[in-house]
Every structure is written in structure tokens, then in C-alpha cells.
Amino acid sequence: MPEGIKTTSAPLPRGHYSQAVRIGSFLFVSGQLPIDHSGNFVKGTSAQETVQTLENIRAIVEAADGCIADIVQCTIYVSDIAHWSEVDGIYGAFFSDVPVLPARAVVLIKEMQFGAHIEIQAIAFLNRPRATDGTERRGEQFER
Length: 144
Known about the structure:
Layout: E1 3-5, E2 20-23, E3 26-32, H1 46-63, E4 71-78, H2 84-94, E5 103-108, E6 118-125
Parallel strand pairs: 4-5
Antiparallel strand pairs: 1-2, 2-3, 3-6, 4-6
Helix pairs in contact: 1-2
């Protein structure tokens, strides 16, 4: 049975969707924009927007008792290929300590909500049952 994942450590949905849905060992993270956990749009460089977007994904995966090493696929939507170098650099740093990099697709999009330059959705494979003893698994904190 699908389980909706919800955390206040990432922006709450502004529409009719879940932050993520877990079904078995798979976690499907909805597309994340550069919006902080308080709901404020982070307007800045492509690098700053990418950092916020990835931190949202981290928070959601951790809310499902996972870590960034569990992410197996990302789809990155970028508004302009001119931003790609910055986005890819931040993405590479974010995943620098994982044993296997996620599979990835990059899609150019003309316009995104709130004028964002980036949106990322992810799939994680959580090959273990959820913690029931009150403990949580945490990934390494990403250096900004």
C-alpha cells in the first residue's frame, strides 16, 4: 500500500500531490523547486537554487528513513542550458560521497513556476523496513 511522506523540513505541497510516495522499497520524490521549508522562493544564482532544491530532496528522503546514497535516479529540469555548468557542479558536490551516482536525465524547460531555473525529482530505493524504534538514518550534511 502506498505511503505518503510528509516533512516540515522541506516545502509543503502547494497543490494536490505528496512530497513523496513510498511503495515497498521505492520512494518517489515529487519535483522540488528552490523553495525553503518556510515556503519562501530562493531567488539567486542557478547554484543557489540547485543547493536549495537538493536540500529539499535530502530532507524528504531522510523523512522516509533514507539517505542520499539511496537515490537511484534524478530528473533535472533546467530553464536554460547556460545554467548547466553551475547546476552540474553543485549536483556533483552533493553526490560526491555516495558509492554509486544516481542515473540522471536532464530536460530543458522554457518556463517553470515562480521563475525558477531548476526543478529536480528523484527516485530512491530504500532496501530496508522503516525504523520503528525511534531511530533515524541520516546522510552526511552537504557543504554549501
